[in-house]
Sequence to fold (403 residues):
Amino acid sequence: MTAALTDTAIKNAKPRDKLYRLSDALGLCLEITPNGSKLWRYRYRFAGKAKMLGLGTYPAVTLAKARERRDDARKLLADDIDPSANKQAEKIALAAQTHTLEMLAREWYAYNKPRWAEATATKALQYLESDILPVIGSRPVKDITRPELVELVRRLEKREAFNAARKVRQWLGQIFRFGLAKGLVEVNPATDLDVVAAHAPRTKHHPHVPLSEIPTLLEKLDSSNCYRPTALAIRLLLLTGVRPGELRSAPWSEFDLESKTWTIPAERMKARRPHVVPLPSQAIALLRQLQEITGSYELVFAGRNDAQRPMSENTVNKCLAELGYKDRQTGHGFRHLLSTELNGWGYNKDWIERQLAHGDNDEIRDTYNHATYLEQRRQMMQDWADSIDALCTGANVVPLRKA
Fold:
């Protein structure tokens, strides 16, 4: 029979080149590692398999305490419970007790950020830090109930932030699904929040004036006190059809003014595909004006108060509202105007969709179109810019390009 361990024997045990064990009784042993650590182990069999359970580190766990933990494990075995599985279950339960919504939400955000476009990541973090975490961030995730989440969303609806409320419902659902996968919650309290969502008033999404009003809009813009880069941003949105977020966050490094090309990398695109924007000569002239203002900065539309950050996402729409176009024209609305007019003029639909970076559901065809439509789009966008110039001089020019 193996002699029981003593405190003296444990203290005198020295490390060797390889790990070795000193045995006590009833499966308890002490591992001495080459680096001098002394680890308590309980060796047992469960369902016919040899297993080992960690009981702590000496001297934090004394010999007497290690024997007590071994005996607790033996009691579980007597009830046909695997001590290792039971210990893991207790760890998960403890983690759920102490894991807050903020901890889970930030893990979810870090996991998804590399997969999102920059604008999506920025928006998600903004909603997390302004609308979700201040309200329930400190609460243990397992204790959060559906009525709490309904009340959180109601706060947004009461201030008529219906789009924010929709996004928050969506992201709460994803956060708790992430928690389900990690074993931190057993149910998702954010399901079916849309069933009790307040009905948002009908709004006209991305409104735009007819093409015939564009000369008047541009005339008002030129005679206004609008910050010059903002005015140039509005004109560039009109001439390129890009999304406002793609424009305002653009660094100078994406532009090749000599080849009249703007290349936006995949990570900045909504569809996570690189996008090449042909630039008409009028856009090149605007960009050269901008170089005199922000050419020394990294960003084309560097913020007025902080040049390291882009202009605010509300800047363009605020300027348009001050010109008298509130609820009639938005920055995004120029995309709809371009699509409506070019389709009406008979341009190839694929060229237009590629210019708007809508892409194609067929990835192979999508890649092919990306390679072959650039020159066609270059001519189409120059025609578009020339037509706007002609309208501003009073001409009635309607280009027609057959598909």
Summary: Residues 211-392 form a domain with the hpI Integrase; Chain A fold (CATH 1.10.443.10). The longest strand covers residues 49-58. Confidence is low (pLDDT under 50) at residues 361-370.
